[in-house]
Specification:
Largest sheet of chain A: 6 strands, mixed
Number of helices of chain A: 9
Shape of chain A: globular
Number of helices of chain B: 14
Strand content of chain B: 5-15%
Structural class of chain B: mainly alpha
Largest sheet of chain B: 4 strands, mixed
Structural class of chain A: alpha/beta
Order of helices and strands of chain A: EEEHEEHEHHHEHEHEEHH
Helix content of chain B: 55-70%
Radius of gyration of chain B: 28 Å
Order of helices and strands of chain B: HHEHEHEHEHHHHHHHHH
Strand content of chain A: 25-35%
Oligomer: heterodimer
Strand order of the largest sheet of chain A: 6-7-8-3-9-10
Distance between the termini of chain B: 25 Å
Shape of chain B: elongated
Helix content of chain A: 25-40%
Radius of gyration of chain A: 18 Å
Number of domains of chain B: 2
Chain lengths: 247, 368
């Protein structure tokens, strides 16, 4: 059995009377691709912010990569990568400069940055574009590049917040190939998404409804227990129970 | 430390690749100095004047000769009646007219008194006042020459010195104001826009998730603009010295020290603006309205504070640029030392500490 790399126990976050995250309990195993689903306003983002060391929980316990979310936020940040749906590279920096910048911020040594960025550019087939401004690249490439940059410092876990919003199906497929590759290299992937076909690609998924974890299992078993053949239907059955309106 | 360096380098890439930022950074100081230095000169020279001489005698012509040789006036063709004077004014060719009555010279000798009329275009009251003074001086001088031997028994002669600016160089007083304004633009407006841009682009999120300390994000943003502000400061000083012939009297070291303090004030304001606004436009607008306008109007740099209603004088006390303006004027133009500006420095220091603290606090609240 693989090690648990993220552990949450009755984790809650309240904003006044509002329970954005309500006693969620789950864990993520090392090397797993873990899907985090839920309608808008279900509390996904709040939960993810806690796990990324951006905000403190109100109660409950959680650890990420072995570090406590209350006391060791700085250590957590060193061991995770993050990519959001909002595009996260600098348009008026070149590909190489972007890599150098993020590598530098994560404290990767200069020689290492040089070596890895050459490899990275070669893998992505962007040798010719390496010195071009990122702003001139097509969106799909930017997205792939952003993912590569997010795992450039070899984190233990990478958090992806709706990473494939607004890209075409082919690019999405290629993007998932990259995710698989990362998982094979031992990086745990924690991904939120709205696309149910993407949910199928995950090893295990949770569905959040009104701040609670309503389901947690592999896609196949979830479909079985909800007596259906599509993840869409599973999600719909769960999300219908929601009392909160989406924001 | 290395992370900070990486960050600052990135910030410089942003600046040097954005043409608009570059233009503001290096075009603006030059434009402002040239504009304020030459275009907005308060000196009045080469003013068109017309003469309506009904006397045509020796005395009237001698006065006209003196006006002709004065550098302040350009003699336009003379007129023959009052309505022509009106026409000249309306055409805009002259700003003033001098009218000699018939028998000007004869009156002068017979009754010992003659009249002459000065008509000035008071649509611009300041210029009109200055022209009146010039003409009165020329006539007074002539009158004095007519009676070289007469001595008025009791005479009080005021001697005037325009201290700290003996040559009446109009450029002097606005330079400290321009410097304050440029710091406001570079350190407040550009910095706030640079921070808000990261928010807008979503890169701020990435930076906050990174192990880079959030406070360091702000520091790394501020340092490049501190450097750029200082470069602008040097540009303004050089332009003032070599283009406008302004002599920098006080200690350069003190001037730089005080300027760095004020730049930090402006940076704190910029960071504060960036924490209360969400878009680049809002940040720009906010900096312009709330920060630059008061600098322009309430520091005494264009309009004298003493003439303002009490309420504005009170408000002006909370505007940091006012103190910086006083300090620079004292050090640069009067050559005074620190012992004369320590009070203003202290006020500025207090304001900076307060603003910086507030900016950091706001930033932290946003994180939680």
């Amino acid at each position: 059995m693989a090690n648990k790399i993220i552990e949450c126990h009755e984790l809650s976050k309240h904003f006044g009377d509002f329970k954005a995250v309500d006693q969620i309990t789950f864990d993520v195993k090392e090397g797993e691709i873990f899907g985090f689903l839920g309608a808008n306003g279900a509390g996904k983002t709040t939960a993810m912010r806690i796990l990324c060391g951006l905000s403190y929980p109100t109660s409950g316990e959680a650890s990420v990569a072995g570090f406590n979310v209350y006391k060791q936020q700085e250590k957590i940040k060193k061991h995770i990568g993050y990519m959001s749906q909002k595009f996260s590279l600098y348009d008026n920096l070149t590909i190489l400069e972007n890599i150098e910048f993020y590598g530098g911020v994560y404290g990767v040594s200069r020689e290492e940055i040089k070596k890895r960025s050459n490899e990275l550019v070669a893998t992505l087939g962007l040798e010719k574009e390496a010195k071009k401004l990122v702003g001139s690249l097509p969106l799909g490439w930017k997205q792939k590049l952003a993912f590569s940059v997010a795992i450039f410092h070899r984190p233990k876990i990478v958090f992806l917040d709706e990473p494939t919003g607004g890209v075409d199906p082919i690019t999405r497929r290629q993007f998932w190939d990259m995710i698989y590759q990362a998982a094979e290299d031992g990086i745990t992937v924690f991904v939120t998404t709205h696309y149910m076909d993407e949910a199928e690609y995950c090893n295990r998924i949770t569905v959040m409804v009104d701040g609670r974890v309503e389901a947690l299992d592999s896609p196949a078993r979830l479909k079985e227990s909800f007596h259906t053949h599509s993840m869409d239907e599973v999600f719909y059955q769960l999300a219908r129970k929601a009392k909160r309106s989406s924001d | 430390m290395k992370q900070l360096f990486v960050f600052i380098r990135k910030e410089f890439y942003h600046v040097f690749r954005d043409r608009r930022t570059l233009l503001i950074l290096f075009g603006l100081p030059v434009v402002q100095i040239v504009l304020f230095g030459f275009a907005l000169s308060s000196e009045v020279k080469n003013i068109g004047i017309t003469i309506f001489d009904q006397a045509h005698d020796l005395n009237s012509e001698q006065i006209v000769d003196r006006i002709k040789t004065s550098e302040y006036f350009i003699l336009k063709e003379s007129v023959n009646n009052y309505s022509e004077i009106e026409d000249r004014f309306q055409e805009g060719r002259v700003k003033c007219a001098l009218v000699f009555p018939p028998n000007f010279g004869a009156d002068l000798y017979r009754t010992g008194q003659a009249q002459v009329q000065i008509i000035a275009d008071a649509a611009d009251p300041n210029t009109a006042k200055i022209l009146e003074t010039y003409l009165s001086a020329i006539i007074g001088q002539y009158q004095h020459e007519l009676n070289p031997n007469v001595k008025i028994p009791y005479q009080i002669v005021p001697t005037v010195r325009q201290l700290y600016n003996e040559e009446q160089n109009g450029s002097l007083s606005f330079i400290p104001g321009v410097i304050a304004l440029i710091f406001m633009i570079v350190s407040t407006a550009l910095t706030s826009v640079a921070v808000v841009r990261e928010k807008e682009m979503g890169t701020m999120e990435i930076l906050l998730v990174s192990p880079f300390n959030p406070i360091m994000v702000l520091i790394a943003k501020a340092i490049p603009y501190l450097v750029l502000s200082l470069i602008d400061f040097i540009i303004v000083l050089l332009l003032s010295a070599y283009l406008l012939d302004v002599e920098i009297k006080g200690s350069l070291l003190l001037l730089f020290g005080e300027s760095i303090l004020f730049i930090i004030t402006c940076l704190s304001l910029g960071l504060l603006v960036s924490s209360v606004t969400e878009s680049q436009q809002a940040a720009m607008l906010f900096s312009m309205m709330a920060m630059m306008l008061p600098t322009l109007l309430l520091t005494g740099f264009i309009f004298p504070l003493e003439n303002m209603p009490k309420i504005f004088q009170v408000i002006s006390n909370i505007i940091p640029s006012k103190y910086y303006y006083i300090i620079v004027k004292a050090v640069m133009l009067k050559g005074l030392g620190f012992e004369y500006v320590w009070k203003e420095t202290l006020v500025l220091l207090g304001m900076t500490t307060f603003l910086l603290g507030l900016a950091l606090k706001k930033f932290k609240i946003r994180l939680a």
